[in-house]
Structures are given as structure tokens and as C-alpha cells.
Amino acid sequence: MGQTTLSGVPGILRPFKEYIEKKSLSEGSEIVFYGVPGTCTPFIELLCFSIRSLPCTCIFVPYKAEEKAHKLVMKADVGFQADSPCPPKNPAVVVIMGGLAMPNMPVTADDMAGVLEKWKGAATVGVCFMQMFEKAGWLSKMHFDLLIDADISVVVTSE
Fold first, then answer.
1. Could you tell me if 100 and 44 are in contact, meaning their C-beta atoms sit under 8 angstroms apart?
2. Which Gene3D superfamilies is this protein grouped with (predicted)?
3. Second-level CATH architecture of 11-19+27-150
């Protein structure tokens, strides 16, 4: 497995877009994002925006509650937003967000490994920050075809 170091938001979005483009998915192919409401959704919206020209259906699943899933749609002058209920039916790609691996989340690595087993034919992508999957021990429980692991550094200036 090759490894490349990139930076900034484009360093997260470009590899994701390139990976999805190379899959040459047909119209309506589902890309299903599993993540934490509120904290993962802005990143998911950015990931969806990066592939906006592709004919895919993007779906957000809060935690692992597929019955609460919503389709993500492009809204003019806004970006991607949650829309109508839309439980996944046959994902081509499953994206697991690292927020799920954070302490005190109602999801375990075994839970998400079960999701991947359920959608066995789907490609698997992980997107996390600060080695969250590694720190939480998730990498020994599941395989990612693409893993994007970004760092966040913050500088605060105030008066």
C-alpha cells in the first residue's frame, strides 16, 4: 500500500475524489457515509462537494442507524445538505468517519466491522483526523481500501 503526504483541505478531498472517479461508478451508485451527527457531517458535506459532478447518490447514516439515513443533495448557493430519508440499499462505497472511533461514541469497531461485512461488495474508505482509527484500535478490526488520516493544527490569536 502506497502512502502520500498532502496538506490542507484539498489534501483530504483530492485523494477521495480521485479514488471515487477511478471506480467509474454508474448513475445512482450509492456512496454511504457513516459518521457522528454534527461533527462528521461538515466533512462529509465537503467530501460530497468534491464529487458533485459524478452521478452518485450520497447518503449519510448517523452512527450506524441506517433507518435514520438521509440522502445528501446539492443545494444551490449552500453546498451539500441532508434531504429526504434514504436508507442504503446497495452501497458501492462505504465511508467510515473517524468521529465514530472517538471515546464515548455509541459505536464500536466490531459494530462497524459488522456493517462492512453486511455490505461486503462495497469498497471501504476511512476518513479520520489525528490517527483516531489507529489510537482506538480499529485498524486491526477492519480493512480500508483508502484511508485518509489528516492532522489538525490550530493557531489562535486574540486580543
1. no
2. 3.40.50.2300
3. 3-Layer(aba) Sandwich (3.40)
